[in-house]
Design brief:
Distance between the termini: 17 Å
Number of strands: 4
Helix content: 40-55%
Structural class: alpha/beta
Order of helices and strands: HHEHHEHHEHE
Shape: globular
Mean pLDDT: 82
Amino acid sequence: MGVKGLKQYVEDNKGVLTRKMTFRSPHSSAKRKVLVVDGLSCLRVFYNPCLDWLCGGQWTELRNELLGFVRRFQQAGFDLVFIFDGVVEQAKRKLWVQRRKQDMRKIRHVFDHMERTGCYPARSMFCLPAALSTYVRMALKSVGVEVINSMGEADREIARYCLSNGCYGVLG
């Protein structure tokens, strides 16, 4: 089972496999508690279909969403470090190109729908705005969050960072 299969399995079994957790501030620990966030894997969490995605993006609302997310963790005593993928590695380039082509077909479908019906597309047609990952990086930096751009695949950089800095965990 790949990452997508595992994600789908967890989503299908939410009541059985997951539970809501409340983080409490560490009492006497002076050591920094760090959670590393896989930036690209969280884009859909931060930019969801409730924001106007069709007209180019609600950047102020997205920045506010990111700020709220960061502050909730800070209030619980955690610092967040976001790590984003760099260039697509040669071994994954063919799959990356296939996914971009799939994205373009989905976008074409959205425009065809609007032309045909004259109506705003349904949530099921949601597409992330172009350049979203670049904007999220800038927005996070603007609110004082540490952002690391990996030279390649972020997974290795995340593991390396966690081991070197004794991180509390990874969000992805």
